[in-house]
User: What shape does this take?
Amino acid sequence: MVVGRLSATKLIKASQVFLPLMLFSWFNTVGNGQRSIFFAESSTSGGGGGGRSVNINGGGSSGFWASSSPSNVGIAVAVTVMAGLALAATLIYSRRRRKHALLPKQWKSLFGPDGKLCDGGVKFLKKVRSGGVDPSIRAEVWPFLLGVYDVNSTKEERESIKTHKRKEYENLRRQCWRILKHSEESFESKETSEPCSNEGSGDFSQVLDSSILEDSVPGTKSISIEEEGPMSENTGQHNQDSTVPPSDSPLEGNCEEETNSSDSDSSEDAGTSQPVITMEETIESEENSKAGSEAHKTEDFSTWQRIIRLDAVRANSEWIRYSPSQAAVSEIKAHRFAERVGLKDYDHLEPCRIFHAARLVSILDAYALYDSEIGYCQGMSDLLSPIISVVEEDYEAFWCFVGFMKRARHNFRLDEVGIRRQLKIVSKIIKCKDSYLYRHLEMLQAEDCFFVYRMVVVLFRRELSFEQTLCLWEVMWADQAAIRAGITKSAWGRMRLRAPPTDDLLLYAIAACVLQRRKLIIEKYSSMDEIIRECNSMAGHLDVWKLLDDAHDLVVTLHDKI
Assistant: This one.
């Protein structure tokens, strides 16, 4: 029997039409030679089966059990065939077999002599989209999926990008280390009640301005766990007056904007005593204004640092069995790293979890500085934790996280505009697909789909196991990478993949998850709180590949309407 590419739902619908004809039909000669054809009919509505017989020669029999009965052997064969096919259809419907993941040998075969992916990455993305990535090569593959490397880049180009990205990350870490040291010193001075009238926000400008080493140093090595603190400290003493952040520093760009829009009290004071403002006074005014804005930014950053460290020590240990090398880290190395990043209250953790928490702190601090508009919000550590479990180099993990957050950062905006947009799309998918369920949600005042809020914010991280999460994210990233690379719907069609790539695959998966529970929601739940409890109890009970199948079916049906 050839199933082909029929979806599970279509297969069952087809069986309802053709099973009565195909399961068994036989001619049974009765009485005076009349022939009757018996059909067994199945019912999927739960109300029991029925049957009918058609008398070819026009007799008066009706119903399955007409005046002539088939043999017991025929009945047994029919029932056995029906049961077998029903079981097969149920198994296909309940669980789709995952296609083979992208394997190391296949991954290597995808590159040409210049280290460039063949056919613009189409075959690569197709493979990931259908089966994910083998765990042994995830650290190599993810930078392509997350936009760190372009799918059309050569090996030489990637080496150049890698060097540049490493330096950028090191510069951010040095800034973080200086701000942390300054915060600790300020805290100590407050505790001892020493006068510090001349040690206010102005010092932060010095801390930040002196924080980046000159990019002209060739062959810069990635900051190691043992080197980070002392190297940063020595660098700061040597370059405090001479080093200026590069023009593409995220902090400098933001500070300049605020400087231009700020009013300076110093300039007003100068104006009262002197009608003409000299160049020196103008520079002094700008410096004072910049110091004020830096103080505000650093105050925010210090708050983010405290929250990051609290969240880091609370990170779960689900990742440990997926990262043996990090799980085997020594106690000395873990404690040393924790001290370098200012991690506290970690004595109750085993070394591997201390090391993991320190890596979270290191990268999340750098990201808060890199994207100061978003900074840090709770939940971001949930997204980073799987990445650092797979990618062992901090600078690579950081840039993978940056690529991930290009889409996910809107989930952490204080105005929640991004969250509301996504919830609206989920609501629209449900409305278009199942109007009856949508009307029920309206009755419960839950049509805004707020009950899937957590799924949207942390991208199913709490509802799926660690491995399932990675599989879902890889398929989602493959779609996004295809869109970045300009792989159109027609290209997917040539690859015989029905669903076109979409930036919103996660939202289709969330809607599919709700639709899978439509009967439960309609029959048992009478408030949104009950639906929220149901969604929060899904952890460990979802089949990620069936979820993706249903999501792709929704994309095929509704993509042009949403």
